Fold:
Amino acid sequence: MQGLRRLLVVGIMRAWVKLALQDSASVPRPTGPPQAHSPGTNSDRVLILGGGPASGWGVTSHDLALPGSLARALSTRTGRGTDVSLVADPFGLLDELPNLLIGQDLSRINAVVVFVGVNDAVNLTAEKAWERNMGLLLRALERETSNETSVYVMDIQPIRSIPVFDSLLGSIANAHARRLTARTERVCRSILRAVYLPLTENTILVSGRYRNSSDYRLWGEFLACEMAARLDLAHDRHGSNMVSPVQITAPPEVEAGVESHFDPVLALAQQSFGTESAAFVLRDHSGLRVVASAGPTGVNPARSDSMSATVVIQPGALVVGDTETDERFRGKPYVTGPPFMRFFAGFPIESPSGERIGILCVFDPKPRSRADTDIVLLRQLALMIQHELQAIRS
Structure:
């Protein structure tokens, strides 16, 4: 009899959810690449996984939604750059989240934030199934990330704080959410790098029918406050570690005919740094090659023993003020011959899933002080190349 009663209630709840969400297609949601960046060097990499606030209901860009808000809030606290990627399904359930991670490279992620539970609460997901699936997800994340990566599991926001669920049936879902939360806390206590984050009252502010940028700013501030200290500690321990190069094939859209797409960024880089040359170098199945350039390049700056090859395996920028005083590069053909490269600065370019696929570099025949090189600007220009690559792909 109890089983029949549960089936009846579940059926009613699911019909209610379907009715409540029937206008969801008209709700603003972000478009474009699901990521955001904030200026700085030695960037922290954060993955947001799940639904709910992660989906960006109510705003039209990821910069205004949680990725951008979290990136800015973290950089304010750490003094480093922040790269936030989003893998989300606005209507997803907990047992579906592992499917979203297929093909994702998590080995270089510094922190993962999991938003899940609202959809499970309103659909009355069984508590035992929830606990089992939460354990499976968190253990999978623990296996796929580094030993310094923390996995933050957000509390389920009060269901009736979501305007479309603010009703009597929302109270039923809210009570179920609290039971799921108790299971979540228990799982997190059993997993070393899992951190359960209960919500504060201010974090769940909704100022209208939908969230706005101010609401996401509060979420970002809340998360950054919880995450910054652990990220600082991990950076102090391993911030200078080299990363392993990844052999991948360049996306076919970059193979031919798109060089002009990158010309404005390269011209801006050349002008901003006052160098004779700037280049976008891509890594593909055959090695490194110059996709586009501004100014002379002389001997191939993408050869296997070049500074470009060094940047691909570095954790951040490579700046060489004078190649003739650097034992790694003095005597190389591109230093002793055209383009007589004395100054060089390069920053890695990555695919959406985090693989190193190339670099943006500027170089000049005159040496200069390394301290005068604006690495933050170089990173921003490299991000512009990344965005252009993604625009070409889409």
The longest strand covers residues 356-364.
